[in-house]
Amino acid sequence: MLDTNILLDALVYSNMLALLSLSLTLTIMTLKVANFAHGDLAIIGVYGAYTFLILAHVATYLTLPIAFLFGGLYALLNYVLVYSPMRRRGANFVMLMIASMAIDIATRSMLQMYADVLKLNFKVYSRAFIFNDVVFNIAGTRVRGLVLISTLSVVSLLAILYVLLMKTKFGVAMRAAIENPALAEVLGINVEKVYATSWFLAGGFAGVAGFFLPFRIPTSPDLGFIILLPIFAASILGGINSLSGAVIGGYIVGVSEILGTYLLSQPPINLSTAYRPAIPFAILILTLLLLPQGIASLWSRGE
Predict the structure, then answer these.
(1) Is the predicted pLDDT of residue 303 greater than 80, yes or no?
(2) Strand, coil or helix: what is 212?
(3) Hey, is 10 helix, strand or coil?
(4) Does residue 137 carry a pLDDT above 90?
(5) How far, in Å, CA of 142 to CA of 233, rounded?
(6) Cα–Cα distance for residue pair 99/299, rounded to 1 Å
(7) Distance (Å, rounded) from C-alpha 198 to C-alpha 223?
(8) Residue 110's Cα: distance from chain center in Å?
(9) CA separation for the pair 236, 215 (Å, rounded)
(10) Roughly what angle, to the nearest 10 degrees, separates helices 278-290 and 228-238?
(11) CB 3.0-4.6 Å disulfide test: which of 18, 206, 232, 277 passes with 250?
C-alpha cells in the first residue's frame, strides 16, 4: 500500500507540473515554437520571492505574488526584446528556438551571478536553498501548507484563466489572435498586446510553480534546465495546442514520475531513483510514436 506522504508529494509535484505545462503551451500557441528557456521562468520567480523574503522578513507564503510578478515580467521582457522583434522580421521557428536556447544560457548565467550577489551581501544560502513549510490544522487534520497552498493556487489560477479566456472581450481577442493572427489584425485586434499579455501570464504561472520548488528540493540557478524534460513531456502529452490537455498531461506525467519512481525502487526491482528522468522521457517518446497530437486529439476528433 502506498504511503500517504508519497501520494501527497505526487499531488504537489503534479500541481507544479500542470502550471508549467499550461504556461509552456500558452507560449507555444502564440509563437508556434518551443521555448527552451521556460524552466528558467520558474527559477526567476522563486529567486524574486526569495529576495523579497530576505529583505522584508515576512511569512514565506506571502511572497507567492512576488514569484508571479517576477516570472511574468521576465517572460514579458523576453518577448518584447527578443521574440517580438524577431517575429516582425519574419524569423522562422528554428531561429526562434535557437533564440530561446540562447536566452536559457544567458538567464542561468545571470542567476549564477545573482546568487553570488545574495551570498556576499546578505550572508545567506543562495544555492541549494530551501523554504521552511508550515502545518495547518483543518478540522482536526494536520495538512502541510505546501499541499494546501499549491492546490489552491492551481485551482485559482485555472479559474481566473478560464474566466479571462471565455467570459471577457479580451479573452475572445486572445483566442482569435492565437488562432489566426493575420485575420485578427484585419479585425482591429492588437495582436502584439495579446501576445505580450499571454507571455506575461505564462511567465507568472511558471513563477508560481517555481515558488513551490524550494519546499520540496534544494533550489539552484540550473534547476530550470533540469525540470525542462518533464515540462515538455506533459505539454506534448496533453497536445501542444490545448490548454486543458496541458493541465491533464501535467497531472499524468507528475503522478507517473513520482509513483513510478517509488514503485520501481521497491523490491523486487530495486531500481535506482537516479533513473527517474527516464519516466517522463519514456512518456514523451511513446506520445510522439503513438499519439503525436496528444491526448487532446482524443476529444477533438468528433468536432
Answers:
(1) no
(2) coil
(3) helix
(4) no
(5) 33
(6) 34
(7) 24
(8) 20
(9) 27
(10) 30
(11) 18
Q: Tell me the average pLDDT of the chain.
A: 94
In which region does residue 144 sit, left (phi positive, over 0), alpha (psi from -120 to 50) or beta (all else)? beta
| All cell numbers assigned to 114 | 545573482
b or e along 219-240 (b: 16 or more beta carbons within 10 Å of the residue's beta carbon)?
A: bbbebbbebbbbbbbbbbbbbb
Section 104-116 average pLDDT: 97
User: pLDDT band for position 302 (50/70/90)?
Assistant: very low
pLDDT of residue 1: 62
Q: Which amino acid is at 19?
A: L
**pLDDT per residue as tens digits for the range 180-207:** 988 899 989 999 999 999 999 999 999 9
Identify the CA nearest to 126 among candidates 53, 220, 54: 220
Q: How many CB atoms lie within 10 A of CB 21?
A: 36
3-state secondary structure at position 143: strand
